[in-house]
Write a structure and sequence with these properties.
- The chain is mostly helical.
- It has a domain of 61 residues.
- The protein is rod-shaped, with a radius of gyration of 20 Å.
- The N and C termini lie far apart (83 Å).
- InterPro entries: DUF4190.
- It comes from Chiayiivirga flava.
- It holds the Pfam family DUF4190.
- Keywords: Membrane, Transmembrane, Transmembrane helix.
- This is DUF4190 domain-containing protein.
């Protein structure tokens, strides 16, 4: 008996590609797309494990997306702290 061939989830591929793109071109938006599609792909694969594969691709996209999102948040916080510190120093001297 031949079991039907499993296909790779398109959402898992989108998640991985978006995760990679988030590190190269569009950091915040790419990370959000990678995270959302990664979770959707994992749910889709869990619902149909006999016909879909690509959980590793989805996990890769999730990891890349979450790391990029964390890096964006830390970068924004550092900018606010730096420029906020400059504003406080400027006000205290003036």
């Amino acid at each position: 008996m031949n079991s039907p061939a499993r296909s790779t989830s398109p959402l898992a591929i989108v998640s991985l590609v978006s995760g990679i793109v988030s590190w190269v071109a569009i950091p915040f938006i790419g990370a959000i797309v990678a995270i959302v599609t990664g979770h959707m792909a994992r749910a889709e694969i869990r619902r149909a494990p006999a016909t879909l594969e690509g959980d590793g691709l989805a996990i890769g996209g999730l990891i890349l997306g979450y790391l990029q999102l964390a890096l964006c948040i830390v970068g924004i916080a550092v900018l606010f702290l730096f420029f906020g510190g400059l504003a406080i120093i400027g006000m205290s001297q003036g």
